[in-house]
Please model this.
Amino acid sequence: MSSGGPAEVAVVGGGAIGCSVAYHAARRGARVILLEAEQLGSGSSGALAGMLSGQGELEPPGPLLRLMLLGRERHREISEELQDLTGIDPGYVWEGALRTAVDEASSELLAEAHALQREEGLRAEWLTGDEARELEPALSREVVAGLYLPDDGQVNPPQLVQALARGAALHGAEIREATRVTGFIVRGGRVEGVGTSRGEVPAGTVVLAGGAFSDLLSGQLGVSLPLFPVKGQMLITNMWPSPIRANVWDAANFYVVPKRDGRVIVGATEEPGVYDRRVTLGGVAELSRAATSLVPALSEALFAGSWGGLRPATSTGRPVLGPVEGWEGLLLATGHFRNGVLLSVITGEIISALALGEEPPTDISPFLYGSLLTGRLE
Ligand code: GLY
Model:
């Protein structure tokens, strides 16, 4: 950390969001401390396939889609910068995504999404089942239509987290793992730092980036975050060469993601309100069934592991970003639900700008705590 007194920015949470905030704030010259209760990336960020689904999630037009597209663009811009600075390869791949349909109902939904994306000026190509199999020959014969989204990509989340944290440290940030934040230092209506399992950390601004558990801390300030976990179980297989190239999705929102090292990640269940990250037999069965129905060759893939992560969801489905009225010195950066990795870079830019008293790079009014509370959507 650059010398000269207490931290300007204390970041609570060492996942993709927290590490990105630390990276961008330190890069702008701020004195930064990042506090992580366990190890970097030990929460949801370490348990994700890492898709950069600006379009693959089929988010309808609106502020969240705009943020997601900006988020994807920012990943493109940062990939080389991070690798050159840190020597860590965040594992970017830009091979697109393929959404698939297997019957009339799922084809109709896909066709609607196609029309909306084209209206937004996005690249999205409608394919018949045979055209989809030309693109991805291992795709099941059951697939009757596809939507190819050439601009989506993917990254390796644990490596991205490490690259952002190393980059932050190279810009002078101090990274403290195994340091649990227990509360806030408060004077008047101002947050002036945090208390931790290893002593107090005074700071000009505290950024709360603790994923699904951020409400436990914010509650101490009377800031009630309508946040809940949506557990996602995933499994990983080894198959080389990979039978697929793009991120391939089925009609029920399961996906298969080929990593550069020969692993194929299959995700993910959606289990709202479940705080337990452990893997269930039912979860593995559901994922195996989805993967092998979509890409039958995966039946021969070697099972290499499974895990669960907790997506931090909000009542509006949008992240909550920025200040909280009545609590100067506090910034929120959580609630990214299915889009934590995708939105990590843009969130880091937004929150670091706010922490340093600068204009954020995009309008954050749809993501403010106030609009989350009223449930007001554009
Ligand atoms: N981003 C995909 C998921 O949350 O499952």
User: Anything to note?
Assistant: The radius of gyration is 21 Å.
